[in-house]
Amino acid sequence: MSTTSRWQGDVSVGVDAWTRRDSTAPPPDPAAEGPDADHEAVARKILLDQLTGRARTRRELADKLSARNVPDDLAQALLDRFEEVGLVDDEAFAKAWVADRQRARGLAPRAIAQELRRKGVDDEVAREALDELTGESQAEAARTLVRRKLRSTRGLDTTVATRRLVGMLARKGYPASLAFRIVKDELGADLEDAGIDEAGLD
């Protein structure tokens, strides 16, 4: 029987013939296996990839490293270094997040604070960033939201429209007193004369 025909029923015969050894498996190939992964280099790449496109909080990055099984001591050391060079900055992140979320989504401070907490921003850091929002800017953001929704309330009973608009602002984190005042102004109706007041909308 030729060597070729013997391989058809037993792969190990072919392997033995190829390696010219008696064992049933080829010897390890160090070049194919490659060197051990450089854990620090891998962790750095993870961080840089995460920071491409937008800033992230320290906890967000720590969670990502943990999910990729980066040792805690290495993760903390790298995060410390990234903070030192300004690549990770929770204070700057919080300020930018506050400005963006109010401008783009019209969120009130209470709702933004909840988002920052979920992202791991310290409450004191979040509070300082939120303090930069003025009462005037909050009212204007709420007014913009109401104006965007007014078209969808046309033809509705005043009470129903008011409830919907106030409820929308409440979901964005605005207090009832501010929400009711803005809605009343924008509807251009005397809600009190219609028997509608803030307490009646609860």
Unreliable stretches: 2-9, 29-36
Helix and strand pattern: HHHHHHHHHHHH
Number of domains: 3
Structural class: mainly alpha
Properties at a glance:
cytoplasm, 202 residues, RecX_HTH_1st, elongated, Regulatory protein RecX, WH-like_DNA-bd_sf, Arc Repressor Mutant, subunit A, mainly alpha, 12 helices
Structure description:
The chain is mostly helical and 202 residues long. It has three domains: 39-84; 90-130, Arc Repressor Mutant, subunit A, CATH 1.10.10; 135-201. Helix content is 66%, strand content 0%. It is elongated and about 65 Å long.
Provide the fold topology.
Layout: H1 3-7, H2 11-19, H3 30-33, H4 39-51, H5 58-67, H6 72-84, H7 90-105, H8 109-118, H9 123-130, H10 135-153, H11 158-171, H12 176-187
Helix pairs in contact: 5-6, 7-8, 7-9, 8-9, 10-11, 10-12, 11-12
Write a brief structural summary.
The chain has helices at residues 3-7, 11-19, 30-33, 39-51, 58-67, 72-84, 90-105, 109-118, 123-130, 135-153, 158-171, 176-187. With 202 residues, it is mainly alpha-helical.
